[in-house]
Automatic annotation (TrEMBL):
It comes from the Bacteria. The gene is rpmC. This is Large ribosomal subunit protein uL29. GO terms for cellular component: ribonucleoprotein complex; ribosome. Signal peptide: none annotated.
Amino acid sequence: MKASELREKDVAGVEKELAELQRAYFGARMQKATNQLTNTASLKSARRDVARAKTVLTEKQRKGAAK
């Protein structure tokens, strides 16, 4: 997920996307813990996607509060 795609969404859309990304990251961590995860690089990308979504959400919230 690119930051530009997240910036096109409203706050509720970004929050929904963040929840989905966190759920996917949790699932990947559980697969790693049970030795079922084959692509360990997906953990890194999932973690970064969550961070990217949180950053965009914070930007949007601050922008809304400044108005």
